[in-house]
Amino acid sequence: MSARPLRVAVIGGGIGGAAAAFALLQRGIDVHLYEQAPALAEVGAGVAVQPNGIRMLRRLGLGDGVARFGARWLEPQYRRPDGTFAASMWPPDLAAGIEFYGFHRADLLGLFVDRLPARIVHTGHKCVGFAQSEVEAVVMFANGARAAADVVVGADGIHSSLQRFVVAPSPPIFSGSVTSRGLIGAASVAWPAGAMRNWLGAGQHFLVFPVRGGELLNYVGFLTTDEATRESWSAPGDPADLARAFAGWDPLVGAIIARIDKTFRWGLYDREPLARWTEGRLTLLGDAAHAMLPHAGQGANQAIEDAVALAAVLARADRASAPRALQIYETLRREHTAGVQSKSRSNGARYEAAGDLAARDAALAAQYRERAWIWSYDAEAEASAAAAAL
Description:
Number of strands: 20
Largest sheet: 8 strands, mixed
Distance between the termini: 11 Å
CATH topology of the domain at 7-43 and 102-171 and 271-354 and 372-387: FAD/NAD(P)-binding domain
Shape: globular
Low-confidence stretches: none
């Protein structure tokens, strides 16, 4: 092994990048995190952290944060537009063993960021260039700064600037859906503790779950459209449009929409899995590697898994073996995340299906079995076993 710690530059300060920096730091790796924005922050929306993601958070020592900021799903149900019961997300007798939490995205990001030393976080650094040799990689920034490292991790999101240095970018494919999403106070609609509801209709559905310890509700209204809406997390939407789209649905849906004063409109774009994630000393992570539709709720979970797996592999590497370690990481993660991408696509089609609702509801009731391979996956254990080849 080399005398000095491996140097890693993580580009992108979202959930995936911050998780990677934290996981690498825990492994004793010399990591620095670079973000183009003036601060590490997330927009006001919720994210579901599922059993595979919660497992990794606990492994990282963040169990107290899960308890403080998460809102556990104890009664997750699919409903028809009129509010009648369609199916449970899992059988009630399994609830004690399935850890599913809603988080405000800012709270989840904060679990990592608040534990990073200030000296390793560099905001206001927009990546504009990349070069590498056999012995090191260099990232160039718009402010004139340069960062040299043994490994560079492109965690810079769905519009990654580093992806093109690895592989031709996977072009966005408009899914035909847009969402309106945001937050309201849970008490304003007397939301039952631990409840998740997903109202499913032909061509549209409405998802609601608690975040921030149950204080807030995250809502997402999914609508079919021919309009190729901009792919953005933060474009403003109109609550009146949402009210019109879900008029006549369960009165509880209407009560939630009536409480909305600000919403964000988000066009859903799909992507085919990338052929490669790694080139020499550069690899990709999170949405830069495997952007996916939200219908399996796995985007953040897969990014956290990437982070833990990458740290476990690089902990066994030195300067010379780092490129080989990145190939091991890619081999481990690329096929798995491609399967999750496919599952996200098929879930969306099922949620908004028309026709035989009895058959659909039966499939929804059994869906937890289809997700077992995702929920039971242990990214750290798999990565540690793979890293033994180094």
